[in-house]
Amino acid sequence: MTDLGIKNLTVNNWLEPDEPSKIFVRISSDGQPYPMTGDECANVILEPNLLETVPLDIRRLFEVTRGAMVYSYFFYPMWTLAVEQLFRVAEAAISHKCQAKGAPASKDTLKKKIDWLIEVSEIPESERTTWNWIREARNWASHLETQTILTPSMAIQLLEAVTERINSLFRGG
Predict the structure, then answer these.
(1) Does 115 fall in a domain?
(2) Which end of the chain is less packed: N or C, by CB atoms within 10 Å?
(3) What is the chain's mean pLDDT, rounded?
(4) How far apart are alpha carbons 162 and 45 in whole angstroms?
């Protein structure tokens, strides 16, 4: 660790699990905790997938996000960086959906785009709170004042939730 409180990356340690990664455990079939391996971590992260109906550009952005999350096992602060990017991927998905559905040019902010997609029934009203939370999280991630560190469990839960929201935008055409 450096005086910054994060791993001091070197050519000798960049492929070693970051110390905080070693404290996260899985529970064995006999109820005993054991450290999560990099492969187990990657398997959990690689499970959520975007549908083939999601535009290619959005799927590319998403893969970069998941890649950063997988490598978080080796550099713990990347969990947060990956989640910050995940929120921007969600914004890109909203923008793409608005463009595909012919949103008026006046729908030029993420809030206006979300509201318009709800108005035209592309997003159910019941999802308004979730999408507005994603919008607020995107704002937080894009206007940082200090480094925040998210835990792997928080990052993975957000990955699963946002993946489902993006998929819902493009399910069925």
Answers:
(1) yes
(2) C
(3) 91
(4) 13
Please state, in angstroms and as integers, the Cα–Cα distance from residue 101 to each residue in 56, 95, 155, following that order. Answer: 17, 10, 31
User: Into how many domains does the chain fold?
Assistant: 1
3-state secondary structure the chain: CCCCCCCCCCCCCCCCCCHHHHHCEEECCCCCEEECCHHHHHHHHHCCCCCCCCCHHHHHHHHHHHHHHHHCCCCCCHHHHHHHHHHHHHHHHHHHHHHHCCCCCCCCCHHHHHHHHHHCCCCCHHHHHHHHHHHHHHHHHHCCCCCCCCCHHHHHHHHHHHHHHHHHHHCCC
Split at pLDDT 50, 70, 90, the class of 119 is: very high
Q: Is residue 12 part of a domain?
A: no
Residue 7 belongs to some domain of the structure? no
The better pLDDT of the pair 25, 7 is held by 7
Q: Which structural domain range is residue 33 located in?
A: 19-170
Inter-residue contact 2 to 8 (CB < 8 Å): yes
What average pLDDT does this structure show over 6-29?
84
Residue 8 in any domain: the answer is no
User: CATH code at 128?
Assistant: 1.20.120
